[in-house]
Amino acid sequence: MGRCLMITCERVSEVNEAFREYLTLFQTPVWLKFIKNTQGADPVIIALMQDGCIAGYFIGCMVKKFGIRILGSPFPGWTTGYMGFCLSNAISPEKALFAVTDYAFHKLGCMHIEIMDKDINLSQFYAISKKYPLSHRIFGTFEIDLTQSPDILLGKMNQNRRRNLKAAKKNGITIEEAPMDTSFVRDYHDNLIAVFKKQHSTPTYDEKRVKALIDTLGSFELLLLLRIYNRDRVCIATGIFPAWNSIAYFWGGASIPAYNYLRPNESMHWYAMMYWKTHGMRIYNMGGGGEYKKKYGGTTIETPWVRISRYKPILFLRTYAEKLHKSLLKIPYIAA
């Protein structure tokens, strides 16, 4: 019979070189710095040791809310995508989950953990329910295969999307790659305010968040910023598209509702797709759900976003807090 190898955890300062090429954008040091700067969070990298060797890592950040220490990987509101684990084939997700959860609760002093990991399915997560209470929701998005030819990508789009691409050209809109400066931050946030104003609400993050993203990622050439102008050189839409490790992401975009008849959004997404395709990206992740995103012809991706609490009342309070937050926003829930 084979040996049952014990997994031990150790908090470390960085991921070793052998694992770096497998990190998601949101597990990289620069993104952890972005979370730290915008959330006041403490980055946490946990090495999982098996038989004296590193078998993987767990990456997240710790915050305190209402006196409760939380390990988010990520946590809603951080405008951050897939985090969780980076594992070798030598370790199973279930064993890694048990090890990290025990370590977070008993060594780091956390009372609650949230994880969204694209490579771990629900049944693997729920193996831990024998020991700790947990719940989940599904984070849905769409991914487009950029290795396909432009003609095929266009052909997979909804007919209205293709028509709008042509209409935008006739309407005289122009798209420009924006410099990474404060003027873009201002334009983007002004556009965002216009979108939320139409919904009788306010943006869920401020200008400082956008500036922090640009300041942190911009110098590493991981970021594409786009401005869309009408014929009168009014900036009618803006978009932010980071990329890493063969995947480009739609982080955020906003168009002034009064100018949407000019059809700027399809052109903005198409430009970003073609830009990152020529820069070696293989996938375009649309950064969340929405019926309009489905029409770009991508594949549906559904990932469990799991909550694990040390005690049942903590899980109950977390669920109640989310419901209260949604009601205060007075808009349909938008995944961060």
UniProtKB/TrEMBL annotation:
Q: Which UniProt keywords apply?
A: Acyltransferase, Cell shape, Cell wall biogenesis/degradation, Peptidoglycan synthesis, Transferase
**Acyltransferase among the record's keywords?**
yes
> In this protein, which residues make up the domain named BioF2-like acetyltransferase?
159-292
Q: Name one GO molecular function term.
A: aminoacyltransferase activity
Gene3D superfamilies per record: 3.40.630.30
- Pfam families from the xrefs? Acetyltransf_6
| Matching InterPro entries | Acyl_CoA_acyltransferase, BioF2-like_GNAT_dom, FEMABX, PG_Glycine_Bridge_Synth
A biological process term (GO) from this entry: peptidoglycan biosynthetic process
The UniProt entry's sequence similarity note says: Belongs to the FemABX family.
State the name under which the record lists this protein: Amino-acid racemase
Q: Which species expresses this protein natively?
A: Candidatus Ryanbacteria bacterium CG10_big_fil_rev_8_21_14_0_10_43_42
